[in-house]
Specification:
mainly beta; 543 residues; 3 domains; 8 helices; 6-stranded antiparallel sheet
Amino acid sequence: MTIELKNGLNFRLRSKKSLKNRDGTNDWFLGVYDGELVSNGGNKNDNTIWVLNLSNSTTGSSFITSKDSKYCLGIDEGLNMISDADKNGNGLFIFDWQPNGRVCIQSVLYANKKNRTGKFGPHLGIDPNGGLIGNAGTGEWGQFDIILVDEKESGSPSNHGASTVSSNNNNNKNDSINNNKSAIPNSNPSIKLLTDFTKHRELWGERFYIEQKFTKSVKARLATMIRIPNLHVKKWSVVVSAPPTPLQTQMIKSAKLTITDNTGNNEISKGSMVKAKHHFILKAVARGIPKQHKIHAYYDIEADLYSISLKKISNDTTFMPMVQPLSQEERLYYLQTTNFINYNTPQFQQWVQSNQLHPILLNDGSVESLLCYCYRVFLFIKLNFEYVFAKDVVGGSRKATDTIQHRKTDCGGFAILYSSILRMHGIPTRILIGRWALSGTAEKQKVHVVGEFYADGLGWCPFDPACAITGDKTEPFTKFFAKNSGEFITMHIEHGIHGIDNSIDDKHQTIEFLQSTAFWVEGDGNFNGQIVENLWTVEKVEK
C-alpha cells in the first residue's frame, strides 16, 4: 500500500524478507541495538521502530528518528549510513515510492552526488551481505518496505496513523493524494477524478493495440522572406529540419528547400540533406547577389498523414500491428535528461514526490498499470496548470523546473514537463515538434508540439497536454490522451538540434525548436531594419 507520510508516523523499515533476524523471528528490519545501527533487527521490540518528522511540507523533506529520539538516520559525506545525523542537514530525506510499492529514501543534502549506479541521488540501502550503505540507487539494494506500527505497540496517538490510497472510494478524505499538504492546491471539482482509480481502470485497464487510419495527403509549404537592408551579404546559409519518416502518423513523400532571389522567382540554391548529430537537416548555401539584400526560402513537404488511437483487444479482434521493440540505445536516448528535461534535479524530484506523481500500489494489492499511471499524470497537468506562451512566463523558459514553479507554459513546455515526469520513472518519451496540417497566417503560424510515450508490447502512445488544457472541457478528459488526429506534421523529434554546421563560421550551432527557417549570413554592415516573414500553407491532395 502507499502510505500517507504524516508527522509522528511510527513504522519499521524492512530490508529483507523471510530471513531470520538477530531476534530469531522472520524478516530483517533496520534498527539500533546497543548504539549500533544494524540491518537485521527484529520486530518484537522498540529497537526497530522509527518516527517520521516532517521538516518541510513544501519540499516533502523529512528526518527519521528512533522511537526514543536518541538516534537520527542519515548519510555522511562519504555516503555511509549513520545513526547520529543532523536532522537539519545530512539527516534530511525525501521518500521515493517505486512501482512495486517499496520505497527508496534519498538524501536531500547530497542529492547532487552520484550513487553507486552512476546516477544522482544517494539512498539508504542494504547490500547483499547485509552491509549498511548510503550510496544505493533505486534498485533492490536501495528499497525498503514500510511496515506501520499500530498504536498499541508504538504508543502513538490516533492522529499519527496512516492512510492508504483507496481504489473504490472517490470521496475518501484520507486519500493520500488529495490529502497531501505538499500537493498543488486546486479547487477544480474535477480534481476528484485524479483518485478515481476505478474509473482509471475502466478506461485503461484492458489490453490495447494502436489503430492507424489514413486521414489525408497534403502538400505543405513554409515560405520565408528575409530582408536585411543594411547588410551587404556575401553569403547566405539557410537551414530547415528534414521531417522524419516513417512515423505512425506520417509518411513523407518528399521534402525540399529552395532559395530564390529577391523576386521570389529565380532559384539561386537548393538544399541538401546533412547530419547534425542526432538529427537530419536540409541546408542551402548561396553566394550573395550584388545589390540584393533579400531572399525567399521555400520549404516544401509532401506527406500522407494518419490518425492513431488505442483500441481494446477483444475476441473479435482479427488484426493487430506488430510492435517494434526499442533497442537499448533508443531506450536510453528517449530516457535522457536535457537542459529542459531536467528531472534529475532535487527540486524536480521533490516536487514529484510531494504530488505523488509516481506509480502506486493500490489497496487491493495491484500495481497501477502503465496506461493508468500515464493517464493520471496527464490529468494532473490538465487540472493544475495554465496555458500561456512561454515568452510570457517569467524568464521565458520551458525547463521542467521552471514550469512547476510558475504552473504555466505552452505546448512545448507541457510536452517537456510530461516527458520529464515519465522519464524519471523509466518510461521512454519522444517530443514531436512541427506544425498543424492546416494553413496559417502571418499572425497564426500553426506551430505546435506534441509527444508520445512508449509502452512495451503496445508501441508509441500519443499525448497532447496543451490541447487538453485549452480544448477539452468534458470529463474524463481523454480527447488528447492516447489519440492523434492525423492533422499534424512532425518536423523533428526531440528538442535541441545540435551540431549544425552553417558553413558561415567554425562554430557548430544549436537550435531547440526548428519549426521555421533558420539562417546565417556573412557580409558587411548591420542587421538594423531586418525583416523576416513566414507563411505556412497546406493543400489537401486528392488521391
